[in-house]
Design brief:
Length: about 290
């Protein structure tokens, strides 16, 4: 049976999404339908798809990970190939903007908006750049997988970091090398993590630290979407990796330049350990209707 879908297109630093609302959890798109909506030639075109569903109506598997009555809405996130992802840093800002602008949710000035995700419940607040999302605790993954990408001369050791979803960050020599990597080919990881990974290629900018803020530039190959203009969780992983490599005295605040703009990353102490927050813009671009066969 054909399905008519009203959708909104949004983006954060050029990482773009198809969003639609399904408060009662009645629309169960197949991976093939999601991939066709995200297709840039035959569909709407996007790096990912976000279904806004009330937390009480999410699938049982996701419910276990986002069990918090405080989050009225759940961000049901899918990559462009239809695969599920736990978290999306740019997407959560765009998702919050979408809920607020469409009147599905309200945010009193200064209030925190809570969003359910497969990576747990995330606090989002308005700030000067758009929105800031507290991604909570992060962790280093064991091992240093070797990263190979087309046009990079040698394999490099990467650092595995989980910020709700999996990343491998690899440092390159300079901006020429960053530009030369051909990310239209899928970079290879050895060993390949079971769940796959988003791979960030990073260079420090000169000078690295300005007024206490670290500056880096990155490109990313996203699991399930290919090269994108930005990846919020990837920027967070990249800043954490560079701080880790820089050692004692490295800043806790970072500006991460990506092909689609720049986002901010801040690490700060809380009672339950260090949290990391991501901030940046969120824009809604247009609305439309599409019929799925
Ligand atoms: N672009 C996102 C990350 C989206 C999910 C990722 N591709 C994955 O599979 O983990 C971001 O802004 O964080």
């Amino acid at each position: 049976m054909a399905l008519d879908l009203h959708f909104t297109k949004g983006q954060g630093t050029g990482n773009d999404f198809v969003l639609f609302s399904d408060p009662d959890g009645l629309i169960d798109l197949t991976p093939a339908q999601i991939a066709s909506l995200c297709d840039r030639h035959f569909g709407i075109g996007a790096d990912g798809l976000i279904r806004a569903v009330k937390s009480q109506n999410i699938p049982a598997g996701a419910a276990a990970l986002a069990a918090d009555d405080a989050a009225e809405w759940f961000m049901d996130y899918y990559n462009a190939d239809g695969s599920v992802a736990e978290m999306c840093g740019n997407g959560i800002r765009v998702f919050t903007k979408y809920l607020l602008e469409s009147g599905l949710a309200a945010l009193e000035s200064g209030d925190t908006f809570v969003v359910g995700t497969r990576a747990g419940v995330i606090d989002v607040q308005r700030n000067l750049t758009g929105f800031q999302a507290d991604l909570g605790r992060w962790r280093l993954e064991g091992g240093e997988p070797l990263v190979r990408a087309k046009n990079l001369q040698v394999a490099r050791p990467g650092l595995g970091i989980n910020v709700g979803n999996p990343h491998v960050v690899v440092a390159l020599v300079d901006e020429d090398e960053l530009e030369s990597a051909d990310l239209t080919y899928v970079p290879q990881l050895d060993p390949e993590p079971t769940e796959g990974a988003n791979i960030e290629f990073v260079v420090p900018l000169e000078p690295l630290v300005r007024n206490g803020v670290g500056h880096i530039r990155m490109r990313v190959h996203e699991r399930g979407s290919g090269e994108t203009l930005s990846c919020g969780t990837g920027a967070v992983a990249a800043a954490l990796a560079i701080r880790h490599w820089a050692g004692v005295g490295a800043p806790n605040q970072w500006r991460v330049e990506v092909p689609g703009g720049a986002v901010g990353v801040r690490m700060y102490a809380t009672e339950d350990g260090e949290h990391v927050a991501l901030s940046g813009p969120a824009e809604l671009v247009y609305e439309g209707d599409v019929t799925l066969a």
